[in-house]
Amino acid sequence: MMYAPYLARPTTVSTVMFKVLAALLPAIATSVWVFGVGVLVQLALASVTALVTEALMLRARAVPVAPFLKDGSALLTAWLLALSMPPLGVWWLIVVATAFAIVFGKQLYGGLGNNPFNPAMVGFAMAIVAFPAQMAAWGIPHGPLSALDQLGWIFARELPAHLTLDAISSATPLDYLKTHIAPDMSATQVMASPLFGHFGGAGSEWVAFAYVAGGLYLLQQKVIAWHTPVAMLGALGLIAALMHLADPWYYSGAPFHLAAGATMLAAFFIVTDPVSAPVSARGRLIFGAGVGVLVYVIRVFGGYPDAAAFSVLLMNIATPLIDRYTRPPSFGAANRKRKEKSR
Amino acid sequence: MRQLYRFHGGIHPPEFKELSNGTPIVSPPLPARLVVPVSQHLGAPAKPCVAVGEAVLKGQLIACADGRVSAAVHAPTSGRVVAVGEADVAHPSGLLQTCISIETDGLDAWIEKTPLPNWQEADNETVRAFLRDMGVVGQGGAVFPTALKLGVSHLDTLIVNGAECEPFISCDDRLMRERAQEIVEGVRIAGTLTGAREMLIGVEDNKPEAIAALTAACAGTPIEVVSVPTLYPSGGAKQLIRILTGKEVPHGMRSTDFGVQCFNVGTLYSLKRAIVDGEPVISRIVTLTGELERCGNAEVLLGTPVEHLLAWAGVNTRCDGVIVGGPMMGFPLESRVAGVGKAVNCLIARSDTLLPPRPPAMPCIRCGACADACPAQLQPMELYWHAKAREFGPAQEANLFDCIECGACSYVCPSQLPLVDFYKFAKDEIWAAERDKKAADRARARHEFRQFRIERDKTEKAERLAARAATPAPAATPDAAKADAIRAAMAKAAERKADVAPPTEDAKRAAIKAAMARAAAKKAEQQDAGTPPKPALDDAKRAAIEAAMARAAAKKAEQQGTATSEAEAVPAPAPKPAIDDTKRAAIEAAMARAAAKKAEQQSTATSEAEAVPASAPKPAIDDAKRAAIEAAMARAAARKAEQQGAAAAEAEAAPAPAPKPAIDDAKRAAIEAAMARAAAKKAEREAQKGQDPQP
Predict the structure, then answer these.
(1) Nearest chain A Cα to B412, which residue?
(2) B12 CA to chain A: closest CA distance, Å?
(3) Of B249, B279, B306, which Cα lies nearest the Cα of B108?
(4) How far does the signal peptide extend, from start to end residue (chain A) (predicted)?
(5) Of A31, A48, A102, B169, which has the maximum CB count within 10 A?
(6) Does residue A35 share a domain with residue A109?
């Protein structure tokens, strides 16, 4: 007979992972509506790659395969990565990125629970560094390609005769803003382009709202804590607002930065990854704020249009340090200290 | 409405209390045989004071309290003692313990009851001795002798624990419902004895009947019944103190330091029975629940075999084991023939349908659910990683010993990890390492002394031969030769130290005094932080050698060839008035030697601490060294405390409410020493880091 406690909440790691997967469904639906079935293709490619790679690696490590495949963590990495990648990206791009994420981001560190970096972000960072051209071509929202044409484009890079590459892809709003802002072109003028929609990009801003919806569900389910998303969005919003106040010509405001790019995906699904983030409440606040600041700095002053992946990875490095210095005092520790002082 | 405070974390496990709390307390039939353990309390086991074959009456003393931290044991019914020896007991270790087996005679004939009607006039000491001899101990689980907790006066708040937060258990609930009046009487007695300013009974709000009964019984008294929110583990003493007073008693401190003392309702009930009715503790209420045909609460005679109770309550065939205590902190019963002790509040007949086994454990995903649930405000996942990696130092730094082992972390863990097992493992390993270290120190001291003794005997023999060769006069009697040898040894010892008093006629005594003075000097020297470690070791060794020489001289004077060194390795034998002087001399010498050994230990601890970093930089290490020395001193103090035992403990201040694995003073001192040592190691590591520019 085992030892106490004999009662345990039935929640398991799979419960947690599948709740997060469920929370991604609104965003997936919105993405499909905006960018087409290419999104689903990316998801499928990523899922299959992740599961196969994970299984192979588990076998190589002589670890029981079934329980770890069923925990849902590889699937979650795959989905998060697929949603970060260009919806119409070439098929091998997502396959390579996912395999890299699972092998180098997760399994080589010891698998579930032992990876210091967010695996999905490891995969994304590899892709954007190694294949910048493929990563830059983002699909136009509500573009002209039919579902079948999208498949042809993803797998064979073949376009219907009447279409050119420029007609189906464009830069992301973040990219566009970065390259068009100039002394004779203010941020406001740039953002007048239809590409920007209402806040952060035509179409993609709706996907961002869907991420918020999923995040709120996770908060309600107590799968994630509020500290990291609030700290990240707060820091990013604050710094964007301050810079905008200081020089509105060059710096767009807080709403754009919050709604654009991968901000909301990162805030509710990436920085909340428990494995690679600090555990204490204070630590999570520091971690989230750090990501928020880095996102702004890299977006505005750095060489890459979006920054979630690099910001998260940089803060992942700092996680053990943050954990070490944010350990909360134990029960009655203040009293003990007082007593020791009086002695 | 009283302001209540919240403790951090806590969980809401399913309660399962309705299984057993619906029926009144009943008395099971008398078993044919009772197996009464003599250690049903924290502290020294009681000493059996009945012989096999002796007839005993109900309530008769069968084992006396041994020392201050102990409690007496009484015959739960009348009958005949049939065995005094090792038997199975309900203890997590599963080890056998001394038990007194009584064959019951069915008469249940009481001995003459001896209440303490004038307790209000009697002084506190008398009442406490009375309670100890009546076997009154804490019935909340820690079974700490209640007498020790009453040695306080001018208490701010007396807290009575009726929270009973663990699932399944309902013995306190039934007791409060049915015997509220007697509990309240017990509270008043305890309140008077401790001079409590206010008296609060805390009961979780899932027991409205108990609250109503107590409130009615408290009408017209200054005692207040407080309904506290149901949240496991609100029944932990520290948690309940926090809820009711807002005070946080940290690990290693006593609640009386904060003017609070906490008693379980069952304890105060038994206290009332002892003082007012003159009945010693011979039974307790036990919840019988789980896979039984008749779940409920029973007033069980101590020593009743568990299988007797289960058979009486009707075990289902599904039952595949028995849990003693609740499902959160209980333990599996090794043997069903074990007798019920004062700590057994609940017996759960378990099955997989009742308590499904946990799904297989997965790796920790750092989700932090455990930290959110931890009532001790720890970071349980961190403790888990350290314990798993056998990093006991960092585990202690992460406040491992603050853990109350409530199991809340494990309950919420999505990875289904048996977290508490890891903490228990780490604690055990740390305690074991402490013991091993002590034993090794002792062995080393013994070995070094033996080396010295062999050397000494050799030189003495050579000197003796030389002396005989130089003065072959037949006038020299063996006695004189011996005296000469002693004088030679004395002179040699004196030569080594300038400040030694000149040899007097009573050379023996002088030599001893000198050795003691030298040892004291060495000790003072040791405490100087500037002393380099290597010479310190040499000094200590020399001190040991000198002390031993003094002792050897004394031995010689005794004119007997019998060696006393073996006897001295054993803690101080009781001095007999026989060969007064020589024996005293020997003892004094032993004391000198002990002082020397202590000094030596300090230096070995120092050198050990130094040895860890191979290329440790010299200058920044002073702090670490001082810490190491302090650690060694603490350890020595711990050993002293251990040796002095209960006798010296009398002088100590208010007794503790003793947290769960509650520890006697010596043990606590040992733990503190271990912590000091850990601090030393840490300081040293930091010093090293400070020196080393490389990460």
Answers:
(1) A9
(2) 10
(3) B279
(4) none
(5) A102
(6) yes
Of the listed ranges B175-179, B475-479, B588-592, the least confidently predicted one is B475-479
CB contact under 8 A, B7 and A330: no
**Helix B180-194 vs helix B265-277: angle between axes, to the nearest 10 degrees?**
80
Q: Are residues A19 and A166 in the same domain?
A: yes
Q: What mean pLDDT is reported for chain A? A: 89
**Do A145 and A79 sit in the same domain of this protein?**
yes
- Portion of chain B with pLDDT greater than 70, in percent: 68
The confidence band for B647, taking pLDDT boundaries of 50, 70 and 90, is very low
**pLDDT given for residue A130 in this prediction:** 93
Q: Is residue B110 located within the same domain as residue B60? A: yes
- Cβ separation of B249 and A335 shorter than 8 Å? yes
Taking CB atoms and an 8 Å cutoff, what residues of chain A touch B675? none
Q: Which of B238, B381, B399 is closest, CB to CB, to A279?
A: B381
Domain count, chain B: 4
Shared domain for B213 and B340, answered yes or no, is yes
Model pLDDT for residues A170-223, shown as the tens digit of each residue:
777 787 777 777 778 777 777 777 777 776 677 788 899 999 999 999 999 999
Which band of pLDDT confidence, cut at 50, 70 and 90, is reported for residue B645? very low
CATH of the domain at B172: 3.40.50.11540
d(CA B97, nearest CA chain A) in Å: 22
Beta-strand (E) ranges in B390-547? none
Regarding whether A162 and A180 lie in a shared domain, the answer is no
CB-CB neighbours of A236 under 10 Å: 27
**Which strands, in side-by-side order, build the sheet including B96-104?**
B33-37, B96-104, B79-88, B55-56
Q: Containing domain of residue A319, as a range? A: 175-326
Place of tokens 């006396």: B64
Cβ contact, residue pair B412, A9, below 8 Å: yes
Q: Which range of residues forms the domain containing residue B651? A: 617-695
Distance from CA of A332 to the nearest CA of B (A): 4
What is the complex's ipTM, to 2 decimals? Answer: 0.89
The three-state secondary structure class of B264 is: strand
Q: Which chain B positions have a beta carbon within 8 Å of A334's beta carbon?
A: 248
Chain B interface disruption, residue of A7, A12, A68, A227, most B CBs within 10 A: A7
Q: Which residue intervals of B260-379 are DSSP H helices? A: 265-277, 306-313, 369-373
B563-610 pLDDT per residue, tens: 334 444 444 444 444 445 555 655 665 665 666 566 555 544 444 444
Shared domain check, A181 and A131? no
Nearest CA in chain B to A274: B367
Peptide bond into A5 cis (omega under 30): yes
CA distance to partner chain B, nearest, from residue A283 (Å): 12
Do the Cβ atoms of B376 and A331 come within 8 Å?
Answer: yes
Does B532 score more than 80 pLDDT? no
The reply to whether A274 and A141 lie within a common domain is no
In a domain, A250, yes or no: yes
The pLDDT, as a whole number, for residue A261 is 83
What are the distances in angstroms from CA A254 to CA A200, A236, A258?
10, 8, 6
Question: Residues A196, A320: one domain?
Answer: yes
pLDDT at position A165: 74
**A245: number of Cβ within 10 Å:** 11
Residue B258 tokens, joined: 């904060």
Assign B141 a pLDDT band (cuts: 50, 70, 90). Answer: confident
Look up residue A255 and give its amino acid.
P
Q: How many whole angstroms separate alpha carbon B482 and alpha carbon B488?
A: 10
Averaged over B139-146, what is the pLDDT? 89
Task: Write out pLDDT tens, residues A286-300.
Answer: 999 999 999 999 988
Interface of A with B in 99-118 (CB under 8 A): 111-114
Q: What is the mean pLDDT of residues A221-240?
A: 95
Residue pointed to by tokens 């699904």: A269
Tell me the pairing of strands B157-161 and B260-264.
parallel
Q: Is the pLDDT of residue B411 over 70?
A: yes
